[in-house]
């Protein structure tokens, strides 16, 4: 199991204040990584315990991933506090908007693209530059995509959201090709239907989506942890430019 250990490594998770991002941050800490979180909201209380529970260093930075200035500042603060020792980056910050194609406003469309595409891309770019600079040979970037990259979300108006997650999937392989020479791997995780603040406003859908899942249950944020630890660690050292769907079998049923 030592190939799964992240002891001595440092991870940055955007959107890590709650939901899937927080669960992945917790999983990475449990595997031994120091954790930095970028988010626009204060992390849930559990984040404050990670440092003592897993004997790692943690820090939260208020960063808006849609703003170049905010990202610049966040990475500069991270570099100061963690000595630039970045090994793992999980661009997870994301938003959804349940609006019909015919009613979508340019402002709402821009917002989805800014957070889900530009935010993920610019976070990856910053992280890759820091990894090249610190010469880590263990670099791993894990972008959070979605099953929505390859199918419509049943019961929702998902044209714009699906477009953004398709873009996330599409940026993975070419980025992996370019970063391979620096020992940096790039993969995506595509969660299925997960119960978080993003999906909580739709209890009827959480119920009906179960029928699309092979094991007939909605996922919890903790269900994503294992794939994240695997992709962050040496256990996945031969895996890059690819995707892991953690979806209870939705995509294959
Ligand atoms: N919940 C699901 O069913 C599901 C399924 C597939 C993919 N996803 C993806 O998982 C990721 C996490 O979503 P979640 O379900 O945990 O939702 P969530 O709303 O609980 O978490 C999203 C986090 O992103 C943060 N965030 C939003 N905009 C930001 C910005 N501009 N800058 C910094 N942080 C920002 C939020 O504050 C929040 O902490 C998203 O990318 C989402 O698209 C979720």
Strand percent estimate: 15-25%
Biggest sheet details: 7 strands, parallel
- Counted up, domains total 1
The CATH superfamily is identified as NAD(P)-binding Rossmann-like Domain
Q: How many individual helices?
A: 7
Strand arrangement within the widest β-sheet reads: 3-2-1-4-5-6-7
Keywords: Oxidoreductase
InterPro entries: NAD(P)-bd_dom_sf, SDR_fam
Family: Belongs to the short-chain dehydrogenases/reductases (SDR) family.
Pfam families: adh_short_C2
Descriptors:
SDR_fam, 7 helices, oxidoreductase, 253 residues, alpha/beta, binds nicotinamide-adenine-dinucleotide, 7 strands, Rossmann fold, seven-stranded parallel sheet
Can you characterise this structure?
Belongs to the short-chain dehydrogenases/reductases (SDR) family. InterPro entries: NAD(P)-bd_dom_sf (IPR036291), SDR_fam (IPR002347). It is a single chain. The protein has a seven-stranded parallel sheet with strand order 3-2-1-4-5-6-7, with helices on both faces. By secondary structure, it is α/β, with parallel strands linked by helices. Strand 2, helix 2 and strand 3 form a beta-alpha-beta unit. The model has no long low-confidence stretch (mean pLDDT 98). The protein has helices at 19-30, 46-54, 68-82, 106-134, 159-179, 203-208, 225-232, and strands at residues 10-14, 34-39, 58-62, 88-91, 139-144, 184-191, 243-246.
